[in-house]
Amino acid sequence: MLTAEERDVITGLLGHYTDPRAAVVEALKVVQEHRRWVPDEALPEVGALLGLSAHDVDAVATFYNLIFRQPVGRHVILVCDSVSCWMLGYEDIATALKRRLGIGFGETTPDDRFTLLPICCLGACDKAPAMLIDFELYGDLTPERLDAALGHYA
Amino acid sequence: MRDEDRPLTRNIRPGEPPLDRAGYEEAGGYRALKAVIGRRDPGELLDIVKDSGLRGRGGAGFPTGMKWGFIPMGPDAPKQKYLIVNADEMEPGTFKDRFLLEGDPHQMVEAAIVAAWIIQASDVYIFVRDAYRRATDLLRAALAEAREAGYLGRNILGSGYELEVHLHTSAGRYICGEETALINALEGKRAVPRQKPPFPQSSGLWGRPSVVNNVETLYNIPHIVLRGAEWYRGLGKGADGGTKLFGASGRVKRKGPWELPMGTPLRELLEAHAGGMHDGHGFRGLLPGGASTGFLVDEHLDLPMDFDPIQNAGSRLGTGALIVLDDRTSLMGMLRNLEHFFARESCGWCTPCRDGLPWVERILAAFAAGRGTAEELDILEMHTRFCGMGKTFCAHAPGAIMPLETALKYFRDDFERGLTRAA
What we know:
The complex is a heterodimer.
Chain A: H1 4-13, H2 24-35, H3 42-50, H4 54-61, E1 75-80, H5 83-87, H6 90-101, E2 107-108, E3 114-119, E4 131-133, E5 136-138, H7 146-150
Helix pairs in contact in A: 1-2, 2-3, 3-4
Chain B: H1 21-26, H2 31-36, H3 42-52, H4 64-69, E1 82-87, H5 96-103, H6 105-119, E2 123-128, H7 133-148, E3 164-169, H8 179-186, E4 210-214, H9 215-219, H10 221-227, H11 229-235, E5 243-250, E6 258-261, H12 266-273, E7 283-287, H13 307-312, E8 321-326, H14 331-345, H15 351-368, H16 374-386, H17 396-410, H18 412-417
Parallel strand pairs in B: 1-2, 1-4, 2-3, 5-8
Antiparallel strand pairs in B: 5-6, 7-8
């Protein structure tokens, strides 16, 4: 199922590593950059390029928070739910986001625009509560300020 | 503080882009690199680091010089040896390494090269968490500039020393900050911790001698080798040498981070630097070094923030990131949040951690809702023992259980109030 381009990029990574296996996270990111997520069908093909079984690739792919194993929307919102953000209003932010988007955590809006996910501490506790949209950091959030952030993403 | 008393952050101007190579060199940067690569004996430099008393800033506080001392050296040592920079900062409450990497990336590059020279590493791997995209971009640019200047690659500054620096971006998982899990992650394996021994210094990445150091730890190195162990020890106020990045989160007026002498009293951090509690909020307690450290309360506020005094008080200095609990936030809610984090981030390898932490989280949810039972209180106590040191491969479970264990000690009333009213 991998495209020729995906294969080329992954093969091109191998020269950077002592052992092809070490490229597995990078390779999964290549697939995710092209498709937004990593489908099961991609695993044996990524494995074949790296000399790994599909199970070996799956063991890594299922381990990380930011390798998506289900389809996601055009933009991914990651809301920090760890302690410093929780103390300064995470629950209000999460509630407001769910209401505005009409979805819960782990869901995607019907127009495919946003996927909403919780994430552990973003190292932005000085700006709590905080979230990432497509890895852009938004801090000192209030329910009122969410609209401005969401408005940047079509 | 004067600039010379805050070596780690003196180049950092929050809100402004970091110094490029020219600016960094104008501010005195790469002087340590030029002074030591090919010119100073690694063994002599290692002695300086040992004498400085520098202890690891990732949370465990292991003496850095001693850690490096276990790396095989000399003509019979393996040719491939690795220095691994742990930039996987994900300890809740902690934002110091992000501040350093975004504020002064060239200092990371210089520190890594100087440290690599001391252990005669062949390669450096900088392991950065995926969420730190800005830090990654800045590091990549700084590495390219350093390479252009001949500070990296073959025959650095004509010394004959060859060093490659590789930037690895991870994909998000707290346990990757544990050094042996990090090594498995770099090898492309599921990032579960390894049993120790063997320690990474004898058999680490791909079975080669390796050492894993935190970002902040390494930022100290160029200054220590340039200015000496005595100068460095003199920066601290107490037993531990140097400065440290401290920060605060919760209902306090200011968050930091601040670079301050090791041994700065906890009260000074809380009252002078963090500016005390928000109006209308009182102080109840704090975790002194991130989520995996134990509660300290009023009686501890005059302790110096050094490794040993905080450990002797039943907690850990950890990352020096205060998480402050106020009197209007629910302790049970906070504990439940903390244990939710640790349960979710457990790698699942060891039973007490994999099965125990979700159990603890469920019980705390019941207490938070006022539906706890006396039997469940006993079960919480049981888990503080099951998750203690030595029951699991790594320190995830012992760290996870520390806030609960100390909350049971200092805030017993909150648990009593969480018992089912009807009982």
